[in-house]
Amino acid sequence: MSIDLDLDCRGLLCPLPVIELGKRYVEVPVGGLVAVLADDVAARTDIPAWCRMRGQEFVGEEEPGRYVVRRLS
Questions:
Q1: Are 14 and 43 in contact, with CB atoms under 8 Å apart?
Q2: How far is CA 23 from CA 1, 55, 64, in A?
Q3: 34-59 pLDDT per residue, tens
Q4: Domain spans in the chain, listed from the N-terminal domain onward
């Protein structure tokens, strides 16, 4: 899996990881992948919920604490 943008959000508490994702995902082309590295336990539910609300694809948790999102629009 080729990641286009890595976001290191370790140490940031909810809702900061999804705020960072929301600001930065537009930096990758449509179809591109963003990996969010987050150690806040809320990210496990917040990131998939953000994807549903924003019409983006939650690819999955590649490894513990590393969440992958595909930009669809």
A1: yes
A2: 22, 15, 23
A3: 999 999 999 999 999 999 999 999 99
A4: 13-34+42-56
